[in-house]
Design brief:
Layout: H1 11-38, H2 51-59, H3 70-85, E1 87-88, E2 103-104
Antiparallel strand pairs: 1-2
Length: about 130
């Protein structure tokens, strides 16, 4: 009874893997939702990620086909950073910036000019 790898031509394994993966994802999201409700917190996005997969993304390495939410997390982090640091041309607030519009870097800040040096002291090593 149960799974026997010696009697499988890989189709049974694939079927069981897909079912187990979906059950894991669904169960994890449901558990987090229930725990947030119990803590009287608003429902939030849940990212199911592997630290190895996130490291592979940041290092530009080949990814495992088993990733779940790593790309969504990376995309959302970059989008959040962009929304805080970039403005649409003509926008007055970072929060008013739509995602799909052309972006421009924030206006440069004025840098105060340094005073001109009064004297230059040159030191040389003794000979």
């Amino acid at each position: 009874m149960g799974y026997d790898p010696d009697e499988d031509d890989d189709t049974q394994y694939q079927s069981l893997y897909v079912q187990a993966r979906e059950q894991f994802i669904t169960g994890t999201r449901a558990t987090v939702k229930r725990d947030l409700q119990r803590a009287k917190l608003s429902n939030q996005r849940v990212y199911i990620v592997s630290n190895r997969s996130l490291l592979s993304i940041t290092k530009g390495r080949k990814l495992s086909p088993e990733i779940i939410d790593e790309f969504e997390l990376t995309k959302d982090l970059l989008e959040e950073a962009r929304s805080r640091r970039c403005l649409v041309v003509g926008a007055t607030s970072h929060r008013d910036t739509p995602v799909d519009e052309v972006l421009a870097p924030p206006a440069p800040r004025a840098v105060p000019a340094l005073p001109a040096p009064r004297a230059v002291l040159a030191l040389s090593a003794p000979r």
